[in-house]
Structure formats: C-alpha cells, structure tokens
Design brief:
Blueprint lengths: L4 E4 L8 H14 L4 E3 L5 H7 L4 E7 L14 E8 L4 E8 L10 E7 L3 H7 L4 E8 L5 E7 L2 H10 L3 E8 L1
C-alpha cells in the first residue's frame, strides 16, 4: 500500500489503547510500522519529500474542524479505518497519487448559519459531517455527498463559499 506510512499522533502514547491499536492496524494494512509524528503536521512538506507517503490522521468522536489542515495542502482523504467506537483513522494521500475508491466525497464550504440552508443540505445532495465556527460569524463545514457540481451550485446560490473537495471514499 505505501512505502512510508506515517501516523500523526499529537496525544499521549503511554497506555493509550487507541494509539497501540492504530499502529497495529497500520502495520497489518501496509506491512510496515508507521513513523509517528507528534508535532505540527505539515502535509505539504511530507508529500514534497515522499509522494507515496500515506498519513494516518486520528479523528475522535469529540473532534471538530480536524479537516482544516487538508485544505490547500494538495492532500486528500482516500479511506477511513475504524479503530474503536471513539477513534477512526483518516487515510490521507497526496492528491496526485489518490485513486477514487467510491462515490462519497468530502466537500468543504464556508457557510452562513441558517436553518433553511441546513434543511436543504441534509438531503440527497449532501449531509453535514463536521462543522467549526469562525470569528467572522460563518461556519466552516464538511459535507459528505455524491454530486460535487450540484453541491457547488447550491453553495454558491446561497451566497456561500465553496472551499474544495478534500477526499473521496
């Protein structure tokens, strides 16, 4: 799968069952123990040094805004692996090496909070996956959807900004 699996883990590792299980699952999947990165994650730098790298990014139940680091880094989510009921790993690849696995895309947008907008979006077009409020009074939101063009049209017709597609699985 990858010559260079990297596990991003900015949390304590001693006695952490999710950390140990993540390393084991990555080893089983790739055949290699992952390099562990615990400081700030520089996805652009990682992929400049090794285009074939796979970064495994943990997302916990209470996490919000975890996907912001992907925007503008030419990185996309290509898969996700469930580690425990509280933790899943997002598998991140350089956009140039990503292969489409399915029809669901992760679509990021900046929106103004309005109940009508969310009623329209939580439909067959897209479903809210994650949100993060900003100081400017807008929300950075991550949606899961099947039709990127339809999603962009609705986002732009409501006066909001489309930020990009950050993965497909």
């Amino acid at each position: 799968m990858s010559k260079n699996p990297i596990l991003y883990w900015p949390y304590k590792t001693n006695g952490n069952a999710d950390y140990q299980l993540s390393r084991k699952v990555i080893n089983n999947e790739t055949g290699l123990m992952p390099e562990v990165v615990s400081e700030d994650l520089d996805l652009s730098g990682i992929f400049e040094q090794n285009e074939d790298a796979l970064v495994f990014y943990p997302v916990f139940c209470e996490s919000t805004g975890w996907w912001g680091e992907l925007l503008g880094s030419n990185a996309v989510i290509i898969d996700k692996m469930i580690i425990s009921p509280e933790c899943q790993l997002m598998v991140i690849s350089a956009e140039s090496h990503a292969k489409s696995h399915g029809t669901h895309q992760l679509l990021a947008a900046e929106i103004k909070p309005a109940s009508g907008f969310f009623k329209k979006m939580n439909s067959s077009i897209a479903t809210v996956s994650d949100m993060l409020a900003t100081d400017a009074g807008t929300i950075l939101a991550l949606f899961s959807g099947k039709n990127q063009n339809q999603f962009i049209n609705i986002i732009e017709s409501t006066g909001n900004s489309y930020l990009g597609c950050i993965g497909q699985f």
